[in-house]
């Protein structure tokens, strides 16, 4: 926004630049986050816990098989494991680890606007010249950027711990960065945007029920990511559910059969077995069917934020 001022008799013009109200609101929010010791404690605690989980789930699928030698019927027992940071391993572990991130996101984003209502500073802010759209979208975008930063911590924990395990455990493969990024973009990124958008929009529309909104989001995600996949067992989920599951729990369940390992007669020692596992576990994931719907879910959730911004009232009853 520019204000043109006329100076002196020479009718000279001077442009006085003012910062965008949207950027100003975002800057306020960033300063609040960065000044909060609790936020830094949460971020560091999350990163440490993600590293611990990645280490604990470094071999989510282990198996052994007997191999016959010669014609005398003697045999040898072979064992192998699927690395938790490989593509096949992440399909086992990523929906579980993602739950940890999702449990934290509503507490970072849902109260962007509701906080002012609860603190009774809402009416004071609304007496300023700050546009409503800048106030709502600025709070949302700042929270979303912080949430995406936490999602990047999840990515860093996978790559970092995967590299460390590669150096310390025999036959542990180094993470395939391209495959890990693909799963992160297809599963973690849309989930982060979706949860951040739903939490913020619903809490803005229903400020008196903001706590309930957080609880519902967390419970729904746990049910979708953990309970339902366990309940299905070996049942093949329908294709539409695999493609449109926002938690990626069912999505991973639908992709995993392509990473099954079948031992052939040529496998006679553990080195050959681990080489077979390596060739299967690091295959490029098949993104046909589920990748675009996941991104679409994340993008469509922005529409709910738009609804919240349009329905937002500059004056409302004060909470009691």
TrEMBL record:
Subcellular location: Membrane
Transmembrane parts of this sequence: 38-57, 89-110, 140-169, 181-205, 212-232, 291-312
Keywords: Membrane, Transmembrane, Transmembrane helix
Record keyword Transmembrane present: yes
Pfam families recorded: ABC2_membrane_3
Membrane topology: Multi-pass membrane protein
GO function terms (MF aspect): ABC-type transporter activity
Domain ABC-2 type transporter transmembrane: from-to ranges: 93-304
Main subcellular location of this protein, as a coarse class: membrane
Domain of life: Bacteria
Gene Ontology CC terms: membrane
PANTHER family in the cross-refs: ABC TRANSPORTER PERMEASE
This protein's name: ABC-2 type transporter transmembrane domain-containing protein
UniProt organism field: Ktedonobacter racemifer DSM 44963
Source organism phylogeny: Bacteria, Bacillati, Chloroflexota, Ktedonobacteria, Ktedonobacterales
């Amino acid at each position: 926004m520019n204000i043109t001022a006329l100076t002196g008799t020479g009718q000279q013009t001077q442009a006085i630049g003012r910062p965008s109200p949207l950027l100003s609101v975002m800057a306020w929010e960033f300063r609040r986050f960065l000044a909060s010791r609790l936020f830094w404690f949460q971020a560091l605690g999350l990163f440490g816990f993600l590293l611990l989980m990645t280490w604990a789930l470094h071999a989510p699928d282990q198996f052994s098989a007997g191999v016959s030698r010669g014609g005398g019927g003697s045999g040898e027992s072979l064992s192998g494991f699927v690395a938790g940071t490989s593509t096949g391993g992440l399909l086992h572990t990523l929906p579980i680890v993602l739950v940890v991130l999702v449990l934290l996101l509503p507490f970072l984003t849902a109260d962007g606007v509701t906080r002012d209502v609860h603190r009774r500073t809402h009416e004071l802010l609304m007496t300023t010249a700050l546009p409503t759209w800048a106030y709502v979208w600025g709070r949302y975008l700042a929270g979303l950027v912080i949430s995406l930063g936490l999602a990047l911590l999840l990515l860093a924990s996978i790559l970092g711990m995967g590299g460390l395990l590669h150096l310390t455990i025999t036959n542990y493969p180094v993470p395939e960065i391209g495959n890990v990024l693909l799963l992160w973009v297809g599963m973690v990124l849309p989930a982060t945007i979706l949860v951040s958008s739903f939490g913020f929009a619903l809490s803005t529309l229903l400020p008196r029920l903001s706590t309930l909104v957080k609880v519902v989001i967390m419970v729904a995600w746990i049910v979708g990511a953990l309970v339902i996949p366990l309940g299905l067992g070996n049942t093949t989920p329908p294709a539409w559910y695999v493609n449109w599951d926002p938690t990626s729990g069912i999505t991973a369940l639908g992709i995993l059969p392509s990473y099954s390992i079948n031992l052939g007669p040529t496998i006679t020692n553990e080195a050959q077995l681990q080489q077979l596992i390596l060739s299967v576990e690091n295959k490029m994931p098949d993104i046909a069917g589920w990748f675009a719907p996941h991104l679409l879910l994340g993008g469509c959730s922005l529409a709910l934020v738009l609804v919240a911004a349009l329905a937002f009232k500059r004056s409302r009853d004060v909470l009691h």
